[in-house]
Prior knowledge:
The structure is a homotetramer. Chain A has about 140 residues and is of the alpha+beta class. Chain A has helices spanning about 35-55, 130-135, and strands at about 15-20, 60-70, 80-90, 95-105, 105-120. Chain A has a 5-stranded antiparallel β-sheet with strand order 1-3-4-5-2. The longest helix of chain A is centred in the first third of the chain and has 19 residues, at about 35-55. Chain A is globular, with a radius of gyration of 16 Å. Chains in contact: A-B, A-C, A-D, B-C, B-D, C-D. The interface of A and D includes residues 21, 24, 25 and 48 of A.
Amino acid sequence: xxxxxxxxxxxxxxxxxxxxxxxxxxxxxxxxxxxxxxxxxxxxxxxxxxxxxxxxxxxxxxxxxxxxxxxxxxxxxxxxxxxxxxxxxxxxxxxxxxxxxxxxxxxxxxxxxxxxxxxxxxxxxxxxxxxxxxxxxxxxxxx
Amino acid sequence: xxxxxxxxxxxxxxxxxxxxxxxxxxxxxxxxxxxxxxxxxxxxxxxxxxxxxxxxxxxxxxxxxxxxxxxxxxxxxxxxxxxxxxxxxxxxxxxxxxxxxxxxxxxxxxxxxxxxxxxxxxxxxxxxxxxxxxxxxxxxxxx
Amino acid sequence: xxxxxxxxxxxxxxxxxxxxxxxxxxxxxxxxxxxxxxxxxxxxxxxxxxxxxxxxxxxxxxxxxxxxxxxxxxxxxxxxxxxxxxxxxxxxxxxxxxxxxxxxxxxxxxxxxxxxxxxxxxxxxxxxxxxxxxxxxxxxxxx
Amino acid sequence: xxxxxxxxxxxxxxxxxxxxxxxxxxxxxxxxxxxxxxxxxxxxxxxxxxxxxxxxxxxxxxxxxxxxxxxxxxxxxxxxxxxxxxxxxxxxxxxxxxxxxxxxxxxxxxxxxxxxxxxxxxxxxxxxxxxxxxxxxxxxxxx
Lengths: 143, 143, 143, 143
C-alpha cells in the first residue's frame, strides 16, 4: 500500500469532521489505540458523516461495505480525542468510496478508504443522477 | 481496490489456518458480522499465526501495523465458526505483509492484507537473513 | 457483593457449558482479559445457552437484560480457551435469572448473574406455565 | 438485584460526571446500545473519574476489579451522548466501591457498582489513611 498523498493528511481536504472521544477499551497491551479500535473510530466517523447521504437510500437497497483499507501513520493514544474527517472520493455506477483521515494532536495518524456498494434487486443497483449529485456535493478537495 | 485473485480465495493457498468462533458481540444492527468485528477476527488469526514468527522479534524492536486492507466478499453470520487462514506475502527490507482470508460455510467471505514494519533504533530496522528465511518458510502459495 | 457460594464455582452445577475462544481483542493494557471483555464472553455463552429456550419467546415479547452482576475471582489470559457454563437460577412472574461461571485452566475465574425481564403488551409480560417448566428443566444444581 | 434507591438516579448525587459519545459499534441487533457496550461506557467513565485518585496508587500495588454489578433501567440509543457520573461508595480495609450512573436524554438509564481491591505484597494491601481521605473526598452524596 502506497504512502498517502499529502492532501490526504490535511484536515481541510475533507468537507466533514467531528471530534471522537477515545475510550479505555480502545487500548491494547502495547498501550496505544489498537488498530481494530481505530477501524471502529473510522466506522463511527463514517456513520456520522453518512447521516445526510443516507436519506438517499431506497428501501429496497442495502449499502454494503465492500472494502476498507487503513494506513496507520502514527501511534495514537488515550484519552485525547481523535478527529475523524470524511468526504466522498470516487463514484462509479454501483459503488463509491468514502475517504477519511484521523487526527490527534494536530497530526494525521491514519487514513481510511472505504468502498460501499449498492445491493438489492437489479433495478436498485445503479447510482441515480440525484444520488450522484449528492455524493459529489460531499466530495473531498484533492490537492 | 481490485477484486482478489482466485488463489486468494482458496484455503490451500495458506500455510496456516484455524477455526475462530464468532460471538454475539460481532453482530451489528444489520444482523450480520460487522466489518470492524471481521477486522478483529483477522487480527486474532494473525496473532495466532504469528506465534512461531514472533520468536524472531528482538527486544529492541517493535513490530507495528502499518496498513490493513480488507475486502468484504460475502456476508458472514453468527454463530457459525469462521476459519482464518494466513501466510506471508511480500518481504521487503524493513516491512512484510501477512495475507489472510476468512472462510465460512466453505466460501471465502473476506480477504485481508496486513503490512507490518520494524521500528526501534536504526540498527534494528532491517529484516535479517535469518528472519527473512523464517518469513519465506511461512509464505503463501500463489496460484 | 458477597463471595460466591462453593457450588457456583463447580462446573457440574451447570446444565450447559461450552468452550469459548479468547481473542487478542480481549486483552487490555494490563495484559489480561479485560473485565468488559469477560462480560462479552458471558453474553456469548448466554446466547448459546439460550438457543433452546428462545423457542419459547412470543413474537410480541422482548426479553430484556435488566441486570448483570459479575464477580471477578481470578485473572484470565489469552490465548487459552474459557469455558462458559450456564443454568437457570430463580424464576419469578415476569423475570428470571441465568447463573453462569467462567473456567480457565480448571479454575472458576468469574461468575455472572443475569436478570432477564419480559416486556411487551401487558398480556405478554407473564411467564407461562409452559415456559416456566422449560426454565426449570434447565436449572442449576445448587449444592 | 434490588431496584436502585432514588438518590442513585440523580446526577447531583455524584461528584464527577462527563459526557461520553456513543458509537455505532455499541449497537447490537436489537438496535439499542448493547449491555456489554454499556459496561464499556461505565469502564471508560470510571477510568476518567480515577485520574485524580490513581496518583495514590503505589508502584507495588495493583488495583483489580473484583466485581461489577449493572442495573439496566431503560434502553439507550445511538448517536446521542451518555453522561457517566461516578463517586466513591463504601471504603473497606482493602477494597472500595465506585458507584456510577448513566444518563441519556435526562433519564438515568443504568447504574453500575464496581468493587476494586488492592493486590500486591502483603504490606501494600491496606488502604492507607491518606488514600482513605482521598476516597472520601470523592464520595457520593447519599440521599
